[in-house]
Specification:
single chain; 12 helices; globular; binds ligand C2E; binds magnesium ion; Bifunctional diguanylate cyclase/phosphodiesterase
Length: 284
């Protein structure tokens, strides 16, 4: 049908799909060497207390500095690394690097600072038998206390999780590592199910924050966020909001009782020094 309606457009769309598939294939095969050559780097985005805007910690966000394509965001290559299993060594590198960085920030602040580091885990990493051992090893070698690390797991990765999957997360939580439920509200998890999960933080997905954009904000969105926050707090979970882009959103979310926030309004992801100067700015 598309062909008879407009041959050119069809061929164009087709060629585009081909190009995407070729790039995907190229990126996939280039991944292992990229890790060996050190083409990955981490940007850090601050997490702030909504109350006073002080820095609570930072999330590590991986990027790939590709020799031909330039800097690629994680959405371009994490799914490929997931499919090929390269996510395991890549994820281990991110964890090690981010934890080392966090320890470095702490030692540079005279008070040892409560600065925390958040690292994303993908489902394959979650299923990997060495998750606990690797994490313990990374923490011990860096000297970072487990309580300063927060591992972010998406809600969808834990949907229908059985005890075998939850056991390593429970072990980590017992050691003091925080587990955050990332992109919360986008999955289909049963809220009552939250009680079963060893999580201590809910990261409310950016889509909720976007709902606060309008003036006045959508009253239904407000009610939903209000309900989630009150449920989370009654389960003793902290609530972080993602994607705060304006002061009005920050105000709204603060009024709704959210605890911490992350977004362009505060800072875009950036080089590690940026976090250091933000923390120092707080201290004076
Ligand atoms: P995420 O964990 O939900 O991270 C938040 C994403 O929102 C980041 O995108 C961040 O740059 C972006 N963001 C932050 N503030 C704002 C804002 O105010 N407005 C908007 N529009 N966006 C904002 P990024 O860096 O592209 O990362 C995308 C996803 O890739 C992450 O989502 C995470 O799921 C995944 N990812 C990143 N690093 C890693 C990693 O080391 N390992 C694994 N497994 N996944 C990672
Ligand atoms: Mg995250
Ligand atoms: Mg998130
Ligand atoms: Mg998100």
């Amino acid at each position: 049908r598309a062909k008879s309606a407009g041959g050119n457009r069809f061929e164009f769309a087709d060629a585009e799909a081909d190009a995407r598939a070729i790039t995907r294939h190229g990126l996939t095969t280039a991944l292992p060497a990229a890790l060996e050559r050190g083409e990955f780097f981490i940007e850090y985005q601050p997490l702030v207390h909504l109350g006073d805007g002080s820095v609570h910690g930072a999330e590590a966000l991986v990027r790939w500095c590709h020799p031909q394509h330039g800097v690629l965001g994680p959405d371009r290559f994490i799914p490929l690394a997931e499919n090929t299993g390269l996510i395991v060594p890549l994820g281990r590198w991110v964890l090690q690097e981010a934890v080392r960085q966090a320890r470095f920030w702490q030692t540079r602040h005279s008070d040892g600072g409560p600065l925390r580091i958040n690292v994303n885990l993908s489902p394959t990493q979650l299923h990997h038998p060495r998750l606990v051992a690797d994490t313990v090893d990374v923490l011990e070698r860096s000297g970072l206390e487990p309580g300063a690390l927060c591992l972010e797991v998406t809600e969808s990765a834990l949907i229908g999780a059985d005890d075998d999957l939850l056991k390593p997360l429970r072990q980590l939580a017992e050691m003091g590592v925080d587990i955050a439920l990332d992109d919360f509200g986008t999955g289909y998890s049963n809220l009552a199910n939250l009680r079963r999960l060893p999580v201590s933080v809910l990261k409310l997905d950016r889509s909720f924050t976007q709902g606060m954009q309008q003036h006045p904000a959508d009253p239904v969105d407000l009610k939903i966020v209000e309900g989630i926050v009150s449920l989370a707090h009654s389960l003793e979970l902290a609530v972080t909001v993602e994607g705060v882009e304006t002061g009005a959103q920050a105000q709204q979310l603060r009024d709704l009782g959210c605890d911490t926030a992350q977004g362009w309004y505060y800072a875009r992801p950036g080089a590690p020094d940026r976090i250091h100067s933000l923390v120092l700015a707080d201290a004076v």
